[in-house]
Write a structure and sequence with these properties.
This protein is of the alpha/beta class. 36% of the residues lie in helices and 16% in strands. The chain contains 10 helices and 11 strands. The mean pLDDT is 95. Bound molecules: 6-O-phosphono-beta-D-fructofuranose (F6P).
Length: 358
């Protein structure tokens, strides 16, 4: 068991539990194994500026981090060092130089699909030693059973549904709750099941608005005058152009609120219903992690120390069948996990009468 000096960074969108990973890593690596751990600010960007934006990670600096949301190191989802800034410059050589200047043996990269792919390229093309820790509230990394932050997001979305339920019922309204998930509908599916939604609309199952109308009719027919619909932000209709009438951002992506507004408009055009839309947005990414995510983040943080300790560079610490293990980062980013439209979760939801619109 040797000593190490490594950098640690958080990349991509934040997720509740990032700080808990940092804390666990430092407690084990610095507190027990006496390694040096250097925190790099704002993903890889902290190494691209002189003076470097880095911090010495001490036990003291990690005090109070278990329950704290966000990431004390800061993060960005716009900092690919292979294609940096408006001129898309490759600045990876600067990272290699910075690591040499700081005497860093390798990097611990906590991030989602995009950040892990950058880590993998840094390793293959620049010879940087990397260990990964998976992060995404969207739960769309297939290599791990689940990611920290996801269940915290589901918990916020479920509470929102519970609250919308009572006001929807009081006013006989159709209530739409839009949750995150541009490409995968896991948050919508889980929150919809936990919050007793009547309809769940996800990117994996393009919806037929008439089916949703018929669900509303059916409920009204038995005296249930309100309907609760969860919409993943990447959901699209089956009819017409997939994303007709939906607002798009610079990268051609549907803007937050676009999917639920499009569905609300389509429903109001077809039925005499009072429709309201709530876009949950970043409320589901901020704040304290729930206990499950604190524990998972702690386990993955300690798992990352084990991988560095065993010099298993190029691996990422994941949860498989309930156990924390290391697998090649390459395997972890190869397959994107979407909701399986024929899977048990969707079948269960259908079995309790939830309509998917398709
Ligand atoms: O991490 C992915 C995600 O949660 C998406 O579901 C969402 O669309 C996105 O982040 C939004 O991130 P930001 O607003 O920070 O770009």
């Amino acid at each position: 068991m040797g000593t190490h000096r490594v950098g640690i960074l958080t990349g991509g969108g934040d997720a509740p539990g990032l700080n808990a990973v940092l804390r666990a890593f430092v407690k084990r690596a610095v507190g027990q194994l006496r390694w040096d751990v250097i925190g790099i600010e704002d993903s890889f960007n902290g190494l691209l500026e002189r003076p470097f934006r880095v911090v010495d990670m001490t036990l003291k600096s990690c005090s109070g981090l278990l329950a704290r949301g966000g990431t004390v190191l800061g993060t960005t989802n716009r900092g690919d060092p292979f294609s940096f800034g408006p001129d898309k410059r490759d600045r990876t050589a600067e990272i290699v130089d910075a690591m040499a200047d700081l005497d860093l043996e390798g990097l611990v990269v906590i991030g989602g699909d995009g950040t892990q792919k950058i880590g993998l390229r840094m390793m293959r093309e620049r010879g940087v030693k990397v260990v990964g820790v998976p992060k995404t509230i969207d739960n769309d990394l297939s290599a791990t059973d689940t990611t920290f932050g996801f269940h915290s997001a589901v918990s916020v979305a479920t509470e929102a549904l519970d609250r919308l339920h009572t006001t929807a019922e009081s006013h006989d309204r159709v209530m739409l709750l839009e949750v995150m998930g541009r490409d995968a509908g896991h948050i919508a599916l889980h929150a919809g099941l936990a919050g007793g939604a009547d309809c769940i609309v996800i990117p994996e199952i393009p919806y037929d608005v008439d089916r949703i109308c018929r669900k509303i009719d059916k409920r009204r027919g038995v005296g249930r005058m309100f309907t609760l619909i969860v919409v993943a932000e990447g959901a699209t209709p089956r009819q017409g152009a997939a994303d007709a009438g939906v607002e798009h951002g610079a990268k051609g992506r549907i803007l937050p609120g676009g999917a639920s507004m499009a569905l609300a408009r389509a429903l109001a055009e077809r039925r005499e219903v009072d429709v309201r839309v709530t876009v949950l947005g970043h409320l589901q990414r901020g704040g304290s992690p729930i206990p499950y995510d604190r524990i998972l983040a702690t386990r993955l943080g300690v798992g990352a120390v084990d991988l560095v300790d065993q010099e298993r560079w190029g691996e990422i610490t994941v949860l498989r069948d309930g156990h924390v293990i290391g697998v090649p980062i390459e395997d972890a980013v190869r397959v994107y996990r979407r909701v399986d439209p024929a899977g048990e979760m969707v079948r269960t939801a259908r079995a309790v009468g939830i309509e998917f619109g398709g």
